[in-house]
Each structure stands twice: as structure tokens, then as C-alpha cells.
């Protein structure tokens, strides 16, 4: 019995570890870019980056541990059932109850690990992560400033930087424009050739400037020269509002220790709504680990019954059960949040339903063994009957002809062998994509859970957001899904000696991989067109819905409220009001400067300004202008009405659209880059994203090429080794891709190389390895 126990536990545990590793990696794909950018920019020491990585891990494990337990039981037992080993065990008198006893060791250890993670590790990691982000926020503020972009997060200050270079611990700025908006009608402007942000301590930063001047106007007498120069000066700045927000807020429930959470949920000093929030979080920490137990109780009888489906049946059941469990849990949480049911009932709803279902299935499996293949067989018989009746209606004389096996394709190419390969490949691809989507959607929900509860977001709005974010997840997971599918497909063929049989009949490996490469190329082309015609609009919608869930104001894509804009030449516009319909400004200032020395050469102020189609110029009313020679006023002139022919920016120039790169197709992004570049804005990141719109879809084909030699080499060790290999390859690819992207974003690599280098590196590696495979 000990041998049998070790054998079953080894089978289940190996699949559970692989499943949990895959799920955790998929979750971390979203955070790798942010972590690697910290490394590339050198804005945080490597130990701090490693801490961020490890502090994020427990939050992901709250979801991935129960899923790993379910995957391990379903796939492990399904594999034993498919090989008739379960039948042999049952014939020797081993019933479902014995399997429960055997797996109780695995279930108990998993439950204890999940419970310790949810109750103790995850809250402390979340709190430590928040403290670390607070510690790094000073250095991060320096790197958040992008060149040629107005930064308005400092209270009463607007900052503009011509160029940014990377230094150790802080960014070095060249060409600094700082406007003090204490008097918003006439800002005090400071311009300097160089600058850097240093830590002042507490909630303040210190801006150190070199070789510059301060320009100030007296509203009562603007002809007075209040300009002063400096070789070095320090200006204290408040911490950006976005970074102060965390300090001002109450500690989130997810970061509180469990004992403190329980105390606050019962404290009379806590408001009823806050008490409910704390109770929901407390029950969530206990209910999620218990999912390991209830999912296992459902998975054991289903895994024992999956005789024909094998591991594919385990995948299908995993997707369905995980979706059902989290749907019930989230529905209960929504009802608890609305006060319709108690938090304990709502958060444990999914566990209760699965506990009852698991006990019923175990009782049935002990007395009346189930056969999951019967439903599939019934469906296949129904389809065959429909096809037979349809053929009788169309061609009755063919009844004497024996039925042929239906092929996926009926053309001369592909062959029957190609059909076989493509069928297996597409089945595994669909299962893997479905699993990844369910995982990402579940984790996204739990990531937004605090905002959903705090902002009382309706469940239907959350569902709409998840529907609209699905295309984005699909676009990003297809390459790794293709990699895994190729590894599993050819790994199983190699293990079952089908590859050897093909070689014996004279079929080359190169010919066998053609259908997979063709379908991977089709997917690459499909991803490109998907990104061109549908994904941008879905991304726009999901961004708007996410802002609603986060409690942010709805974003507008036409920005008439923007106060600062860089002109087509070396000039900066500042205005307090702009009417885009009548093309009118209120309280507008124009600052012209020498781009070489970054000294102001001219300043114009007007109470009003409007565009004249007759003279094709801006008409300024009731204002003044002054010319500078160095820091001295060379000329001052007040006016009632004036024009400036050198200002060529038309009204359309001030109505630019503000979009994210993922909300545009390639042509729209190219025009947007050209438009922003004429305005003097930084477009390096956008150029990298433009190249990625062409480079990223190709990686699907590259992944298929790279996976083939690994599949043929690891096939003898089974698909588990193939999955482990896939994780390793995917991690290496994503790290390299995001690293190159970070180098491109910081102008350390040209955009073309930053986007296409990963494709080139992995494509050449895959081609070389395929040529080394014995054919």
C-alpha cells in the first residue's frame, strides 16, 4: 500500500507543481515589464527589485495554489484512468474512499500551505510591498518625468524637461522649465540648463538646478524686471499627489494582519460599512485556502471516471470547475457586499456548493462508477446520426458505401497525418488558452476586489469590464499557448513512438512540422489583423470601465482642459481657458526660448485671444509682451490688440487627441507619433510600441519554431518535462523582450532593435536547433 500511495502522490504532486508554476508565471507576465523597467532605468537597487518580486508572489499564490491542487488531481488521476491503472486498482478492491485517504496527505499539506499564505504571508507581503513602494517613491518620482512631457502632479507646479539621461539613483535632466502656479494668472517661471531631484526627506523632494534664471512678473506693473540668475539653486517640491494618496488613505484591508482585521470588524469605533468590508476580507482569507479541499473532493471522483479523455479531460474539467467555483464565490461576495446576505455565507457559498457536490460525487463513485466518456460518446453518436441522415437526403445511392473517418481538411494538402497533428494541436491550444483566460480573469477580479468593494461597483459593470479585457489577455497569451501546445503535441508523439513510425515510413521531421508551422503563421497574421481592427477599441472600452471601477473620473480623449502645450517651435503655451468651439483663449501666456541655452527670449500675455480666419492669425487682446536679452528686458510693449505672425499654431493644434498606444492601430499610431513629434513631445516609447505592433504577432510563429526541437528532445520524459521546458523558454523570452523594450523606452536602443531583437534572437535559435534535430 505504501508503494501505491507514493506512486499516486508522485503523479498528482508533479502535475500540481507544474500547473501552479504555469499559472503563477502567467500572472507574473503582467508585472515583469514594470520590474525590468526599474532595472533598466537603474531607478531602484536590484535587492529592492527582488523584494518587489517576492512580495508580489504570495498574492498570486492565493489563487494559483487551489488551481494547482485541482489540476494535479484531475490530470494525475485522468492519466492513471486513461492507462487503465485506475481499473486495475479498483479490480484489486481499492475504492474511491481509499483514493481520498491517499490524497488526503496531498490535500492537507496544500491546505495548510494555502492557509498560512492567505492568513499570514500574503497580508504581511502586501504591507511590506506598500512600505517598499513608499520608500522608493522619491527616486521613482525622478524617473516618472518623461522628456518633453508636461508633468502636472506636483501641487502648484508644472515641470517640463527637454531631455533625460539615466544616473545612479536619480535621473539627470537637461533643459528644465518649472512654473510656480501659486499665482495662476501670472506664473513664476524658472528655467535651467540642468537639474536633478534629490530626497528632501518626509513628503518633500528637492529640485537641484544649475545655470538658470527665474522670471517673474508683477501683475500691477509687468514692465518691472524681476528676473534673477543663478549658478545653483534648490527648490523644495511637494511629493506628487499620486504618491501621497497612499499615505493619506486608511491602510487597505488586504494589508492588515488577520488578528487586527478580526478586531476591527468587531470594534464599535468602526463604521458598519467598514466592518462589513473587514469581515468580507477575513472570510476571504479563510475561504480561498479551503478551496483546496472542496475542489479536491470534486476532482477525485471526476478524475477517477475520466477513462477515455486522459489529460485533455483533466484540462477541460479544470477550466469548467475553476470557472464555476469562482463564479459562485464572486456572486456570494457581491451579495455580501450589498448587505443582502451575511459575509460568512457569501464568501463560503462556493465552498458549500462544491462540498455538497463533492460528497455526492464520491458517494456515487463508490457505489456506481461514473463514465465521463459516455456523454461524449452520446454526442458523437448524435453527430454521426445527423450526418448520416443528411447524406441520405443529399445522395441516397451512397448508402452502400462504408462511412469514412471525417477529416479536418479534405484537400490533397494537408494529408491524413497533418490532420492528426493539427487535431491534437488545436485541442491542446484551445484548452490551454481557456485555462489561461480563466486564470487571468479570476486574478484580475481579486486584484480589483478592494476597489469594487470600496466604490460599490455593480457586478454587471465588473462583468462588462472582464468581457472587454478578455481580447487583451487573448492577444498576449496566444504565443505562450502555441509554445505549450507544440511541446505537448510533439512530446506525446515522441513518447508514444509516433515520430519513430513516421521516420520509418520515410516521412521527414521537416515534413511533419509543416502543418504546425502553417497554423502558427496563420495565428501570427490573425493577431496582427486582430490588433489593427478590433483590439484598440476593446482596449479603449476596458480602460474606461477600469477607471470607473477604480473610482477615477472618466477620461476624455479631446483635452480642451489641458493648460500647457509645447508649440511647433521653441515656445510654450499656458492658458487658463480654451473654448474649442469658438477657438478662444482666456488668460493666455506664450514663452519663447533659445533651445541652445534654454534662456527665455520673449514672453506674451493676453487676457483674451481668438483665431481670425481672415488674417489666419491669433488676435491677442488687452495684454503685453516683453523681449529679453539675457536676463534684461530689452523691450516692453503693452497693447489692446496685437498679432504675432511667428506663432503658426492653428486651433486644431490645441485639440490634439490623447490616446494610449494600445488604443490605436499601426496607422493611427504612426500619425499620432508624427503629430506629437511636431509638438515637441517625447515619442520614443510610442515608436517602440509602433514597432511592437508588427514584431509581437511574429513571435507566435517563432515560438512554434523554437518549441519543436525542445519537444522532440524532452518527449521521452513525458509532457510534464515539456511543460517545464515551456515555462523556462517563456520566462527567458519575456525577460529578454521586456528588457529590450525597457532599453528602447530609455533611448538606449533604437526602437526597431528594441522591438525586433527578441524575434530575431529566438527565431535564429529555433532554426538552428531544428537543423540539429535528426530527421
Which SSEs are present, and which pair or pack?
Blueprint lengths: L1 H40 L4 H37 L2 H7 L4 H49 L12 E10 L4 E10 L7 E14 L2 E12 L12 E11 L2 H8 L9 H9 L5 H34 L4 H28 L5 H5 L1 H19 L5 H22 L21 H39 L4 H37 L2 H7 L4 H4 L1 H20 L1 H16 L13 E3 L4 E9 L4 E11 L4 E14 L4 E13 L2 E12 L22 H13 L5 H31 L4 H27 L5 H22 L3
Antiparallel strand pairs: 1-2, 2-3, 3-4, 4-5, 6-7, 7-8, 8-9, 9-10, 10-11
Structural class: alpha+beta
Could you describe the largest sheet, including whether it forms a barrel?
A: 6 strands, antiparallel
Mean pLDDT across all amino acids? 79
N-C termini distance: 44 Å
- Which segments are poorly predicted (pLDDT under 50) over 5 or more consecutive residues? 242-249, 392-405, 407-411, 553-561
Strand content: 15-25%
Amino acid at each position: 500500500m505504501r508503494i501505491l500511495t507514493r506512486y499516486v502522490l508522485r503523479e498528482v504532486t508533479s502535475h500540481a507543481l507544474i500547473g501552479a508554476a504555469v499559472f503563477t508565471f502567467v500572472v507574473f507576465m503582467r508585472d515583469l515589464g514594470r520590474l525590468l523597467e526599474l532595472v533598466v532605468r537603474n531607478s531602484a537597487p536590484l535587492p529592492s527589485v527582488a523584494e518587489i518580486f517576492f512580495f508580489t508572489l504570495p498574492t498570486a499564490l492565493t489563487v494559483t495554489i487551489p488551481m494547482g491542487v485541482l489540476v494535479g488531481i484531475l490530470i494525475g488521476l485522468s492519466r492513471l484512468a486513461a492507462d487503465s491503472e485506475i481499473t486495475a486498482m479498483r479490480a484489486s478492491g481499492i475504492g474511491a474512499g481509499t483514493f481520498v485517504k491517499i490524497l488526503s496527505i496531498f490535500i492537507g499539506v496544500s491546505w495548510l500551505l494555502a492557509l498560512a499564505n492567505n492568513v499570514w504571508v500574503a497580508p504581511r507581503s502586501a504591507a511590506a510591498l506598500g512600505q517598499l513602494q513608499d520608500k522608493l517613491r522619491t527616486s521613482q518620482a525622478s524617473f516618472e518625468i518623461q522628456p518633453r512631457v508636461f508633468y502636472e502632479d506636483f501641487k502648484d507646479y508644472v515641470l517640463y524637461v527637454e531631455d533625460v539621461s539615466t544616473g545612479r539613483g536619480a535621473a539627470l535632466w537637461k533643459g528644465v522649465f518649472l512654473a510656480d502656479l501659486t499665482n495662476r494668472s501670472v506664473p513664476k517661471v524658472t528655467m535651467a540648463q540642468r537639474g536633478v531631484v534629490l530626497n528632501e526627506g518626509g513628503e518633500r523632494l528637492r529640485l537641484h538646478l544649475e545655470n538658470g534664471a527665474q522670471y517673474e512678473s508683477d501683475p500691477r506693473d509687468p514692465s518691472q524686471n524681476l528676473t534673477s540668475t543663478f549658478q545653483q539653486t534648490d527648490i523644495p517640491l511637494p511629493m506628487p499627489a499620486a504618491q501621497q494618496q497612499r499615505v493619506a488613505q486608511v491602510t487597505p484591508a488586504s494589508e492588515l494582519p488577520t488578528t487586527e482585521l478580526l478586531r476591527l470588524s468587531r470594534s464599535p469605533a468602526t463604521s458598519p460599512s467598514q466592518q462589513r468590508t473587514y469581515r468580507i476580507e477575513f472570510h476571504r482569507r479563510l475561504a480561498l485556502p479551503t478551496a483546496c479541499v472542496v475542489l479536491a473532493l470534486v476532482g477525485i471522483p471526476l478524475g477517477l471516471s475520466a477513462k477515455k479523455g486522459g489529460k485533455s479531460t483533466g484540462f477541460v474539467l479544470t477550466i469548467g470547475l475553476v470557472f464555476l467555483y469562482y463564479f459562485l464565490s464572486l456572486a456570494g461576495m457581491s451579495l455580501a457586499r450589498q448587505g443582502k446576505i451575511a459575509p460568512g455565507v457569501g464568501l463560503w457559498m462556493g465552498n458549500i456548493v462544491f462540498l455538497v457536490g463533492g460528497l455526492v460525487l464520491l458517494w456515487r463513485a463508490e457505489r456506481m462508477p461514473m463514465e465521463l466518456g459516455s456523454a461524449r460518446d452520446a454526442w458523437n453518436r448524435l453527430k454521426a446520426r445527423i450526418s448520416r441522415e443528411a447524406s441520405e437526403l443529399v445522395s441516397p445511392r451512397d448508402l452502400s458505401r462504408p462511412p469514412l473517418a471525417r477529416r479536418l481538411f479534405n484537400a490533397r494538402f494537408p494529408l491524413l497525418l497533418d490532420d492528426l497533428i493539427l487535431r491534437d494541436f488545436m485541442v491542446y491550444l484551445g484548452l490551454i488558452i481557456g485555462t489561461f483566460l480563466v486564470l487571468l480573469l479570476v486574478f484580475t477580479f481579486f486584484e480589483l476586489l478592494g476597489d469594487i468593494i470600496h466604490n460599490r461597483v455593480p457586478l454587471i459593470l465588473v462583468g462588462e469590464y472582464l468581457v472587454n479585457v478578455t481580447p487583451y489577455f487573448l492577444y498576449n497569451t496566444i504565443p505562450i499557448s502555441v509554445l505549450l501546445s507544440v511541446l505537448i503535441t510533439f512530446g506525446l508523439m515522441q513518447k508514444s513512438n509516433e515520430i519513430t513510425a513516421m521516420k520509418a515510413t520515410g516521412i521527414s521531421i521537416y515534413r511533419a512540422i509543416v502543418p504546425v508551422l502553417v497554423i502558427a503563421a496563420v495565428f501570427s497574421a490573425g493577431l496582427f489583423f486582430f490588433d489593427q481592427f478590433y483590439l484598440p477599441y476593446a482596449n479603449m472600452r476596458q480602460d474606461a470601465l477600469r477607471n470607473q471601477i477604480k473610482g477615477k473620473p472618466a477620461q476624455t480623449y479631446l483635452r480642451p482642459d489641458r493648460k500647457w502645450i509645447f508649440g511647433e517651435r521653441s515656445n510654450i503655451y499656458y492658458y487658463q481657458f480654451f473654448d474649442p468651439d469658438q477657438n478662444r483663449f482666456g488668460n493666455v501666456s506664450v514663452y519663447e526660448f533659445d533651445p541652445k541655452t534654454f534662456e527665455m527670449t520673449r514672453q506674451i500675455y493676453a487676457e483674451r485671444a481668438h483665431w481670425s480666419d481672415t488674417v489666419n492669425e491669433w488676435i491677442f487682446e488687452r495684454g503685453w509682451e516683453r523681449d529679453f536679452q539675457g536676463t534684461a528686458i530689452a523691450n516692453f510693449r503693452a497693447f489692446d490688440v496685437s498679432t504675432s505672425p511667428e506663432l503658426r499654431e492653428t486651433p486644431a493644434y490645441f485639440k490634439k487627441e490623447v490616446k494610449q498606444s494600445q488604443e490605436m492601430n499601426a496607422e493611427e499610431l504612426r500619425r499620432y507619433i508624427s503629430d506629437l513629434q511636431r509638438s515637441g513631445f517625447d515619442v520614443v516609447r510610442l515608436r517602440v510600441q509602433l514597432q511592437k505592433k508588427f514584431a509581437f504577432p511574429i513571435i507566435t510563429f517563432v515560438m512554434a519554431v523554437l518549441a519543436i526541437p525542445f519537444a522532440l528532445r524532452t518527449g521521452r520524459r513525458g509532457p510534464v518535462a515539456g511543460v517545464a521546458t515551456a515555462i523556462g523558454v517563456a520566462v527567458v523570452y519575456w525577460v529578454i523582450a521586456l528588457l529590450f523594450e525597457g532599453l528602447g523606452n530609455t533611448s538606449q536602443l533604437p526602437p526597431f532593435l528594441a522591438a525586433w531583437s527578441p524575434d530575431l534572437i529566438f527565431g535564429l535559435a529555433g532554426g538552428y536547433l531544428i537543423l540539429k534535430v535528426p530527421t
